[in-house]
Design goal:
With 117 residues, the protein is mainly α. The protein has one domain: Cytochrome Bc1 Complex, Chain D, domain 2, CATH 1.10.760. The protein is 49% helix and 0% strand. The chain is built from 6 helices and no strands. Helix 4 crosses helix 5. The protein is globular.
């Protein structure tokens, strides 16, 4: 019997609520906290301290490394941004839905920055 890695299964289980429920209202009508809950919480945790499945890193100690502008750039294209920033290494974070407006993205980023210390 072969053993399969648990990481893909854990990721699928963590993302299942997003696939099943989706946002309660359009992104342009959501607060930063609601957008965070929709797009970030399953991996980074409710308060940005990581999830129980350890899928995304904690935000602890990251405030000095992020600005609103570079975080907006990162969420739009994580793979390209990470390739140019050696601090990030190999990341598998999905990009934010391209249909989410810049105004909504700014609310999301403002909320995420508020979780960093």
């Amino acid at each position: 019997m072969s053993r399969r890695p648990l990481a893909p299964i854990a990721l699928a289980l963590a993302l299942l609520p997003l696939a099943c429920s989706g946002p309660k209202k359009p992104a342009d009508e959501q607060s930063g906290a609601e957008l965070y809950a929709t797009y970030c919480k399953s991996c980074h945790g409710k308060q940005g301290r990581g999830s129980f499945l350890n899928l995304g890193p904690s935000y602890e100690g990251l405030a000095q490394h992020w600005t609103a502008e570079n975080l907006l750039e990162y969420i739009a294209d994580p793979k390209t941004f990470a390739a140019a920033d050696e601090r990030l290494g190999e990341r598998e974070m999905p990009a934010i839905d391209p249909n989410v407006s810049m105004e909504a993205r700014r609310r999301l980023v403002e909320h995420a920055l508020g979780l960093m210390d």
